[in-house]
Amino acid sequence: MIGTLYVVATPIGNLEDITERASRLLREVDVVACEDTRHTRKLLNHIGSAAPTLSYHEHNETSRAREIVGRLLEGQRIALVSDAGTPLISDPGYRLVALCRENGIPVVPVPGPSAVTAALSVAGFPTDRFLFLGFPPKKAGALQNILREVSGIAATLVFYVGPHDLLSLLSALAEQFPERRIFLIREMTKVFETSYSGTARSVLDEIQNQEPKGEYTLILEGSSAATPPAAQQVDLVAYVRGLMESRGMSQRDAIKAAAAHLGLPKRDVYALFIDENTP
Fold it and tell me: CA 202, 214, 49 angle in degrees (round to 5)?
C-alpha cells in the first residue's frame, strides 16, 4: 500500500498556533522531513511527538526527494514541514511534491500559519489581489529590475526580507515608489513583534538607526489602490486630539498612533497638527 505525504504548516513563532490536526499527524507519522532537525525537534518535543526526523533542505533536496518517495512507495506516512509556516512558500519542497504527483503518491495539505497571509490580514491594504514575491534579489541591479517589472501591477505586493537586506530594500522602494504606502512587520507572533506603516522613506527614517533583527514581511501598496487612503476620510487634527482626550495620550504618542493607523508618515501628521495649532 502506498503511503501519504502530508504538507504540514507549523507556527511562525508562537507554538500555541499549531493546529490540533497538525499536532496529531506529527505524532502519528513514520518520519518528519524538515529543514533543520534540531529546530523541528523542539516543536515535536512541545507536542509530545517521538517521530524521527529526516533533513530535507535546499542543498540536498534532489537526492532526498528520491529517498522520501522510495519510503512513501513502501507505505510510510511522512510529514513535510519547514522551519516556520507553510512549506513550499519560499521554502524547499516543490520537487518532492512534483515527484510524488508523478508517482501517484497522495499529497495532503495540512493548512495553518503563513507569514504572507498573517501580514496581509493586519496591513490594511486590499487583499482581493496580491502578488507574493518572496525574498528580493540582494544585488542592487537585480533588485531595481524586479521593482521596475512590478511597478505597474495594481495588486498588493508582498516580500520576505532578511535583516541584512532590509535597509537596502527600503531605500530602493523609497526611490522607486516615493508616494506608495508600505506595511512592515517583524517577528510576527513572537514577544518582540513590531510593525511600521507609512511610506518607505518614513519607515526608513524611523528604523535606520536601529539594528535590524529577525525576519521581516513587507507589504507594498499596488500601483492603484482599490480603496482610497483612510487619511482622506478623516480630519487628522481632530483624530489626534481625540486620541489625546479619550485615551489620555501625550501629543507625541497620539501623533505616532494616528500615523500608524492611517498609514501616513509620522512627520507629515506632526507638521499638519502643529501647523493647525500654531496661532
Answer: 145
* CATH class name, domain 5-113: alpha beta
Burial class of residue 221 in the structure, from the number of CB atoms within 10 Å of its CB (0-12 exposed, 13-18 middle, 19+ buried): buried
Residues 184-229 pLDDT 10s: 999 999 999 999 999 999 999 999 888 888 889 999 999 864 334 4
Every domain of the chain and the residues it spans: 5-113, 116-220, 230-276
Distance in angstroms (rounded) separating the CA atoms of residues 74 and 217: 40
Residues 72/2, Cβ–Cβ less than 8 Å: yes
The reply to whether 5-113 and 116-220 are identical in fold is no
> Which triple of cell numbers denotes residue 114?
503563513
Quick one: pLDDT at residue 228? 42
CATH number corresponding to 116-220: 3.30.950.10
Per residue, the 3-state secondary structure of 165-225, as one string, reads HHHHHHHHHHHHCCCCEEEEEECCCCCCCEEEEEEHHHHHHHHCCCCCCCCEEEEECCCCC
Q: What is the pLDDT of residues 33-43, one digit of tens each?
A: 999 999 999 99
227 vs 109, more confident: 109
> What's this model's pTM, rounded to 2 decimal places?
0.77
